[in-house]
Every structure is written in structure tokens, then in C-alpha cells.
Amino acid sequence: MINVVSGIDHFASAGRTPWHRASALAKLILALGLVGLAVFAPSLRLLAALHAVAWLLALTSRVPLRLLGLAVAYPLLFLGLFVVAAWDGTWRTPLVLALRPLTAGLTAVWLVATTPYPDLFAPLSRVLPRRVGDGLFLTYRALFQLLGRIERLWRSLRLRGGGAGPARRRMAVAGQGLGTVVLYGFERGQRQYQTMILRGHGGRICGCRHWAEVSRADLAVALAVVLVATLGILMWRSP
User: Fold this and answer.
1) pLDDT digits 0-9 by tens, 88-109
2) Cα separation of 199 and 194, whole Å?
3) Cys-Cys crosslink for 24: which of 60, 143, 151, 211, Cβ 3.0 to 4.6 Å?
4) Ramachandran quadrant class, 161 (left: phi over 0; alpha: psi -120 to 50; beta: rest)
């Protein structure tokens, strides 16, 4: 998982497509509109059309197919269990249940793979409460540190025989390792907060100043918004 998340994060800053140059605010509006329509669409044809738009956005952003496939595959297990539990014997129900989360997942991958995290959290911090916005901003970066430490800890346990022996012993070793990671995360948060205070933190973490700057690349986002809105108007009542 750490490789997928870090790969998408790197591609968001290194990509050179028009989607990467568009403003974060415009892309966020497009993503919210597309996901909202996909969730509430009463028509299977509309849902299929929105799913095709999500694939178009993801593919034209040139996200590596491996990263795209791995990111979309994560919810498939839970999706399969939900489809089996809610199946009514028709093919329409599982198709609708599958297309909605897959469309939302593709759209989310497109958004985070074309928007650096400071630009992405900057507009959110203007809407969310101050502590929530700042917490999301800091947690995103801390996630990579914690996942990397867990990966190194697990590798060390395996090399030293921590994965062998009876189940009771393995559970005890895993609990001790998890406790170590929790303490590390708490200490790291304390050090980071103290560092921010020493450097003049005034109560709000400022996001990137370019999140709402309009450029020519926003024309592509505007066209995509028009396409999504047109599909919603024309196919809302279609079967």
C-alpha cells in the first residue's frame, strides 16, 4: 500500500498533463459533481456514461496503469461482499452497485494523482473547521512516515524470527510492534507541534497559494464539467 500511495503522491507533482496544471478548486468542483451524480443517478445508462467519463479523466491524466489498477482494486473485496448480500437475482442491481463505488474511486484517483497535496487541502481548509483542516494536512504527510516505519518493523520481525512459532507468540510480538508504532507516532506529533510553535505557527497551516489561480488548463476542466452536466440533464430520466 505504501508504494501505491507514495507513487500517486509523486505523480501528482511530477505530471505534466493539462489536468496537473489546472487549479485545484476547479478539479475539486468537477470531482464532487461527478461523484455526486454517480451516487444519486437513478438511471443505469447515466451511471455507465459517468463511469466512462471517470475512465477518460484517469487515462488522459496518464496515471500509470499499475497504480491506477491497484488503487481501484482495493474496494473490490468489500464491493463483492456487498453485492452478494444485496443481490436480488437480476443483473441490473449488482451492476449499479459496482459502478457507483468504482466511478467514485476512479474520480478520487484522478483528483489526488493530478493535484499536489498542499493544493488539495488548501480549499478544504477554507471550508472545514480549523483544527480538522490542519489535522488532515498533517496526517497526510505523517501517513507516509508511519507506513514506512511499519514496513521496516515488519521486515525486521521476519528477519529475526518474529513471524515463526505458535500463534500466541506471534500475536504478542505483533502487539508489541503496534505499541511501538503508536508511541513513535505520538512522540513525532509532539516534536512536530513544538517545532511549529518555535517557527511562529499562528494557529492555521496555510495551504498553497495557487489552489484557486485560473489558467488555460482550467478550460479542460470546464469542458469536463459541461460534459458531466449535459449527461446528467439528458440521461437523468432514461432507463
Assistant:
1) 677 777 788 888 888 888 898 8
2) 9
3) 211
4) left
Would you state the cell numbers that stand for residue 198, as one nine-digit string?
518555535
Q: Cα–Cα distance between 76 and 98 in angstroms, integer? A: 9
Provide DSSP, 45-107: HHHHHHHHHHHHHHHHTT--HHHHHHHHHTTHHHHHHHHHHH--SSSHHHHHHHHHHHHHHHH
pLDDT in tens, 106-159: 898 899 889 887 777 777 777 777 666 666 666 666 666 666 777 777 777 777
DSSP 200: T
CA-angle at 60, arms to 47 and 34, nearest 5°: 30
Task: Give the length of the chain.
Answer: 239
Cα angle, residue 100 at apex, residues 94 and 102 outer, rounded to 5°: 95
